[in-house]
Design goal:
Blueprint: H1 4-16, H2 19-26, H3 30-44, E1 49-52, E2 55-58, H4 60-84, E3 92-98, H5 100-117, E4 121-127, H6 133-138, E5 144-150, E6 161-176, H7 190-195, E7 201-204, H8 210-221, E8 227-231, H9 235-243, E9 249-252, E10 263-279, H10 286-323
Parallel strand pairs: 3-4, 3-5, 7-8
Antiparallel strand pairs: 1-2, 5-10, 6-9, 6-10
């Protein structure tokens, strides 16, 4: 009989590539991981790892076993979810991972709802870059998380996770407003606007983050490599640097709710999409289901408020134009 815990270690090795990375993620020692994988090989009766010095690669048999492991772990998660559904009150801990702009605008109202409707549920929030959220979900340090993708950086397939769309945003070019301009929008064609910034200095996220990758790929698609002067992961900081004349940047809707004076936002064809993600088999777990509802409702409320704000701003612009 194959040990489920050892199968999980093999699955993590397939994703993380090294025994050291698996050990760090799951709080084992590297030697303990190696011992457990060796025991799994004995249980399987076939070689699972090819060792070359300190590196290991998975054999074809191991890769096939990883596919079965994904199914087995998902079934166990589903069984746990069904057992939890028999309880009369929602208790336990729910670990949520989200990126910074979502914490401010979407997650906070969802937390208020969850706390009010399920007071016995302990909520733990971790702010993290979406690029590392899938690994945290597989390692079970998170139960539900917000993932992102951009047109130029699509979401990679995650066999052990289920995802569902939640929000789509426009990405804007943030730059200094031209002297004498009284509008935060740029009349220039969006396709030409980005290419026109090939000689500009840029502000981007920390290397390794999704925002940094998006900036680089969007500029490459426009025909140039950006000269990145500053790295900042908080969009308020990014916009402050733009306002200080330190460069231009790409900012999505959620990051552009408060724009400093003098900063112009030019909508681009690029979109950012946010997805809810959770381990396969957990979607019907009462805590996960409650969080899914609360987050979707928070997005709907935010979108409705944004539409109302845009309508009010448009009315003000028309009124100002009529007085000229």
């Amino acid at each position: 009989m194959l040990d489920v815990r050892r199968l999980r270690l093999l699955r993590e090795l397939a994703h993380r590539q090294t025994i050291a990375a698996v050990a760090e993620a799951l709080t084992y020692t590297p030697s303990a991981v190696s011992q457990q994988l060796t025991a799994l090989e004995r249980e399987a009766g076939v070689p699972l790892l090819e060792r070359t010095g300190r590196s290991v690669t998975l054999t074809p048999a191991a890769l096939r076993l990883v596919e079965h492991a994904e199914t087995i772990l998902a079934v166990l998660e589903q069984a746990t979810a069904e057992l939890a559904a028999t309880r009369t009150e929602l208790t336990g801990t729910l670990r949520i991972g989200a990126f910074a702009t979502a914490v401010h605008t979407i997650l906070s109202p969802a937390l208020v709802t969850l706390s009010r409707e399920h007071p016995m549920l302990e909520l733990l929030v971790t702010e993290l870059d979406p690029a590392v959220a899938p690994a945290a979900l597989r390692a079970e340090t998170l139960d539900i998380a917000l993932l992102q993708e951009y047109d130029h950086v699509p979401l990679a397939p995650e066999p052990g996770l289920d995802t569902e769309p939640m929000l789509e945003e426009t990405v804007h070019l943030a730059s200094l407003r031209a002297a004498g301009s009284d509008s935060g929008q740029d009349a220039q064609a969006p396709a030409k606007t980005l290419a026109a910034q090939s000689g500009s200095l840029w502000i981007a996220g920390t290397p390794g983050t999704l925002c940094h990758e998006m900036t680089v790929r969007a500029c490459l698609a426009a025909g140039f490599t950006p000269r990145i002067r500053h790295h900042a992961d908080d969009f308020a900081t990014v916009l402050a640097l733009v306002a200080a004349g330190q460069g231009v940047a790409l900012v999505p809707d959620l990051g552009a709710l408060s724009v400093p004076g003098g900063v112009r936002l030019t909508p681009l064809p690029t979109r950012r999409r946010t997805h809810l993600a959770y381990r396969r088999g957990t979607g019907a777990h009462p805590a996960i289901a409650a969080a899914r509802r609360a987050l979707h409702n928070a997005v709907s409320a935010h979108s409705a408020g944004s539409e109302a704000d845009q309508a009010a701003a448009s009315s003000r612009s028309v009124a100002m134009a009529s007085r000229r």
